[in-house]
Structure formats: structure tokens, C-alpha cells
Write a structure and sequence with these properties.
Layout (H helix, E strand, L loop, with lengths): L3 E6 L5 E7 L2 E8 L12 H23 L8 E7 L3 H18 L3 E5 H7 L17 E6 L4 E8 L2 E7 L5 H11 L6 H9 L22 H17 L3 H4 L1 H27 L3 E5 L6 H14 L2 E3 L10 H13 L17
Parallel strand pairs: 1-4, 4-5, 6-9, 9-10
Antiparallel strand pairs: 1-2, 2-3, 6-7, 7-8
Helix pairs in contact: 1-2, 3-10, 4-5, 4-6, 4-8, 5-8, 8-9
Length: about 350
């Protein structure tokens, strides 16, 4: 029997709805919020208001694009957390009301688990390579940096994580310091293509085991530019490409060193990445090269599944639906924490 899942994602500033039939996408609609660009970052109150305006049109568009009506849905899956609480409340409230009104199961989904499970969304002809269990997944985004041992669809263990800031935040902060527009990560990726990644060196934190830290790197970058600007007020503009390339190389090398260590310690050679920073072209390149050197089977997500999207929520909901792991109507979102 075909299973139709409606997914809702509202953890930050993108309102998204997706429809899946089993593990294949019928629709994946995303409404972006450009209002945050002038503030240089997401304003939580503005984000939650925009979600309220966008969620019904986005769901309606997703159903129409999928070519089904709401009566055909078997369940609705939604992001419970982590994320901005006001934004999550919009998606949670809508999903509970929808499930109650339609008399269908409600499925709660952890946002970070969903990023990982996006690897199991199959293409139309069913030829996309999927990772085997167990595999390691480096999940890298603006709010999280984790190494996860994925044992099966719903059993995952975080074996390494950031003790302070995330890799995506380090990208965005570096971009903001250099006066680049928000979001800064893609801007650094673009500028770095024309820069020398070895021109400037920045200190790497010495954190035990498989954990990460990026707060010291951000501070070091800030102080470095402050000192250089004292003697040359045009230092950033004159060295923009090399600064972007050097900062990007430092962040990626930190990520790759820990991921390689995790692979050695675990003996797992199925390696994946997920999350917004997995869209970074240099990150993808270096992971592919490391895979060739180390004999890893590497899995890199399609660009449409790197940023926040409801398709990943729907696929996670699909696997939970098969296990009959349903949420009650008194479920509440959580802003912090993860699986």
C-alpha cells in the first residue's frame, strides 16, 4: 500500500511543506523570509509572524503540486525541535489541528535526525545510492555540529558535538565581520573559489576526543582583522578572497580531522554529511577526496536537501509511521537539545 505523508518544517525562518509517497517526493515547497537580510540574521519574532502568514498557502501549494487531496494523507509529520520556539509553535499548532481535523496520526520529528534521514529520499527511478547501516554522518549547520553513528533509521548516537558554537555560525560570523551580506556562508564559499586557502593561518582548537569548538576561532579571526585594520583600513577589501578561502579551509580542516578520527575509531567506512554547511562546495570536494584516499563510501546530499526543508521531515515521518511511533495532541516543541 502506498503511504502519503505531509511534512511540515518551521524550525527557523523557512516555512516548508512536502508530500511524500512512501520514500519519494511528490512536492517540496519552501517559502523563504527575505525580511531578515537587512538585520544580518534571523529575528525570531518576525520569523514566527511570517510562518503564520505562510503555512496555509505553502501546505495548499504542496498538496496541489503533489496532485492529491488532503483526504489521501495517512499522517502529518512536523518538526518538534530544536529551533526557534516561536517558529516551532506555529508548525506544531498547525500540525496538531490538521491531524485532529483529519483524524490522522501526528508524527513528531527531530530536526537533526531529519537532516540525516534525507539521505533515504529516493529519486523517481529508484537508482539513487543509499547508505548502509551503520554509517557515520557529519551534520553541520548554523546551530549544530555533530558526528552521529547511525545504526538504523530511528536509532542514532551522537559521538561528537560542538561544545560551544556551530560550524555554520563560524562561517556566518566571519562573513559578518568582513561586511558580507547575510547569509554569509554561501558568500564565503563563492569568494573562496578565487582565493588562496594557505595565505592566512588561524588557530585550531585542541578539543579532546570527537568534540568540536569554534568560538575561539571566531574570536581569533576578529582580533586578527582588528589588528590588520589598524595599519591598513582597506585590508579586508584588498584580501577578501584570500581571507574567505583561509577561514573556510580552517573550518573544513577541523571538521575533516574529527570525521576521519571517528571513522578510524569506529571502523565504519560509510560516511555521509548533512545540514546547511554540507552545501559548501569545498566541503563536498574534500569529503570526496578523503573518501578516495581512505576507501570510504561517501554520501553527499542533493542541494535541495541541505537547507531546512519539509521533505526531510516527511521521510523521517514515514519511517516513524511504519513503526507506528505517533505523538499525542499534547506534544510541545523544544528549542534546544536533540535526540
Amino acid at each position: 500500500m502506498n503511504i502519503y505523508i505531509l511534512g511540515i518544517e518551521s524550525s527557523c525562518d523557512d516555512t516548508s511543506a512536502a508530500v511524500l509517497i512512501n520514500n519519494k517526493i511528490l512536492a517540496n515547497i519552501i517559502a523563504n523570509q527575505s525580511i531578515h537580510e537587512k538585520y544580518g540574521g534571523v529575528v525570531p519574532e518576525l520569523a514566527s509572524r511570517a510562518h503564520q502568514q505562510n503555512i496555509i498557502p505553502v501546505v495548499d501549494t504542496a498538496l496541489k503540486t503533489a496532485g492529491i487531496n488532503k483526504e489521501q494523507l495517512h499522517a502529518i509529520a512536523f518538526t518538534r525541535g530544536p529551533g526557534l520556539l516561536g517558529s516551532l509553535l506555529v508548525g506544531t499548532s498547525f500540525s496538531k489541528s490538521f491531524a485532529l481535523g483529519m483524524g490522522i496520526p501526528l508524527v513528531e520529528v527531530d530536526h537533526m535526525q531529519a537532516h540525516i534521514l534525507a539521505h533515504f529520499i529516493q529519486n523517481d527511478n529508484g537508482t539513487r545510492d543509499l547508505p548502509d547501516f551503520p554509517f557515520l554522518c557529519l551534520t553541520i549547520s548554523g546551530g549544530h555540529t555533530q558526528i552521529v553513528l547511525v545504526k538504523n533509521y530511528l536509532e542514532m548516537e551522537v559521538i561528537g558535538k560542538t561544545i560551544d558554537d556551530a560550524a555554520g555560525e563560524a562561517f556566518d560570523k566571519a562573513a559578518k565581520i568582513m561586511g558580507l551580506p547575510y547569509p554569509g556562508g554561501p558568500e564565503i564559499d563563492k569568494l573562496a573559489k578565487q582565493g588562496d586557502p594557505n595565505r592566512f593561518s588561524f588557530p585550531k582548537p585542541q578539543i579532546p576526543e570527537l568534540d568540536f569548538s569554534f568560538s575561539g576561532l571566531k574570536t581569533s579571526f576578529l582580533y586578527f582583522l582588528r589588528d590588520e585594520l589598524k595599519s591598513n583600513e582597506n585590508f579586508i577589501q584588498e584580501n577578501l578572497h584570500d581571507l574567505a578561502a583561509s577561514m573556510q579551509q580552517t573550518i573544513i580542516s577541523i571538521l575533516m580531522e574529527k570525521l576521519s578520527k571517528a571513522a578510524r575509531q569506529s571502523g565504519v567506512n560509510q560516511i555521509a554529511i548533512a545540514g546547511g554547511v554540507s552545501a559548501n562546495s569545498e566541503m563536498r570536494k574534500q569529503l570526496s577526496e578523503a573518501g578516495e584516499r581512505n576507501g570510504w563510501d561517501v554520501f553527499i546530499p542533493e542541494f535541495q536537501f541541505t537547507t531546512d526543508n519539509a521533505a526531510m521531515i516527511a521521510i523521517a515521518g514515514y519511517f516513524k509511521y511504519l513503526k507506528k511511533e505517533f505523538a499525542s495532541l499534547d506534544v510541545t516543541p523544544y528549542a534546544r537539545g536533540s535526540f
